[in-house]
Structure formats: structure tokens, C-alpha cells
Amino acid sequence: MSYVSEGRRVSRLIGGTLLLLLGGLFVLQNLGLVRAGHLGDYWPLLLVWVGLCRMLVPGSGRHFASGLVIFLLGVFFQLDRLDLILIPVRHFWPIVLIALGFGLIGDALVGRRARSAIAPDSQPGPGGAS
After folding, report:
1. How many folded domains does the chain comprise?
2. What is the pLDDT of residues 75-109, one digit of tens each?
3. Second label for 113, Cα 20 to 30 Å away, from 19, 51, 65, 102?
4. How far is CA 97 from CA 38, 88, 100, 101, 104, in A?
5. pTM for the full model?
6. How far apart are alpha carbons 71 and 90 in whole angstroms?
7. C-beta of residue 106 within 8 angstroms of C-beta of residue 65
8. Is residue 57 packed enough to be buried (19+ CB in 10 Å), middle (13-18) or exposed (0-12)?
């Protein structure tokens, strides 16, 4: 199975799980058991989905750091939308920029480390042939 088809499978599993959880939450709201709010309150779950996919798809080790940052941002924004964070997110938007910067730098460093680990094997031998 190729990385692309495996990546699609993982993405569908994560997306399907999130949709099942969200649908179940709204069923409980329709039964009067919980107060879930509106569907628009759950847009940060898209960030959670993207972050998990970047972290969990096979062969995506180069994207783990940015996936983790995207995932954590999604969780943070979701907690804010559900009023579980006391300080409004609008006061922390510079921290979002810093977190994204760390994610990009982490991906670059991990990718560089992976390329340098592969590079010695791909160098030609002393006679010019591998």
C-alpha cells in the first residue's frame, strides 16, 4: 500500500471519528441531555483533523512538529469556543504566530535530519559508482 493511499485511509478514519463524535454530541443535545451549542462552534475541529493527519500519516515524520502545533491550536481554539478558557484567545494571537513559527522550524529541522541520515547511503563510492 502506498503512502498516499495509506494517508487517505488515516485521514478518513480521523475525519470519520470526529464526525461520529460531533454527531453523537448533537444527538444528545436533541434528546435534552447536554447543551452542545451550534455547529459553527466546532470549526476548530478542522484544525484538530489536519493536525492529527499530519502527525499520524505514515511517512509524514517531516510534518510531525507542524502537525502537533496545528492540533494544539485546534484544541486551544475549541476550548475557547466552548468557554472553557478564562482569558480570551484574541489576547493570545501573537502566541499563535510564535507557535506556527516553531512548527515550521521544527519541520525544517526534522526534514534536514532525515535527509542527512539518508544522504551518506546515496553518495557515490570512491570510483564514482554506487
Report:
1. 1
2. 988 998 888 887 777 777 788 788 888 888 887 88
3. 51
4. 28, 16, 5, 6, 11
5. 0.69
6. 18
7. yes
8. buried
